[in-house]
Amino acid sequence: MTPEKRRAMIVQAVLPLLVEHGAAVTTSQIARAAGIGEATIFRAFADKDELLDACVEEALRPDNAVAAIEAIPLDVPLADRLTEAASALGARLERMGALFGALRASGYKRERGSHKRRPGNDAIRDAVAELFEPERDSLRLPPEQIAAMFTGLLMMRGRMGDEKPDIAAMVDVLLHGAAR
């Protein structure tokens, strides 16, 4: 196995452990989950912090969400396309929230400056913008701007607590406005 594949395999095995244990996960637990010896962890990563950072970077990757959005057929109604995209993005945000919540609770702190704007966010916005393309001529704003609004609404939805609207209601308000 190449060093890159070994690192990726270890990261995939560690992500669920981080949600459960946060940064308090032990190298013994990591080794067991990955089916490797503890020494192999340190041949792949300089230390546990480097492994945790690699896990965070993996969690931030947009690939799966972008693929799910790109798989949405453009011949279904726009509201249905957006509802499906919201489900894919909502699942991603929930996974990230669980991971980062567990890491934060266990005392893990990322290096300052690591919260830069990420190209992955652009990839997600671009994939969502494509969902608006069939209706481009009937939109009040360019698809890219509406996609940015849509993804922003989804991100804010997670902060609304018990009062958060369901996805269908959010899509309806985005497409038809808040007035009755």
TrEMBL record:
InterPro entries: Homeodomain-like_sf (IPR009057), HTH-type_TetR-like_transc_reg (IPR050109), HTH_TetR (IPR001647). The keyword Amino-acid biosynthesis does not apply. Residues 26-45 bind DNA. Pfam families: TetR_N. The keyword Oxidoreductase does not apply. Keywords: DNA-binding, Transcription, Transcription regulation. Residues 4-63 form the HTH tetR-type domain. SUPFAM superfamilies: Homeodomain-like (SSF46689). GO terms for molecular function: DNA-binding transcription factor activity; transcription cis-regulatory region binding. This is TetR family transcriptional regulator. It comes from Kibdelosporangium aridum.
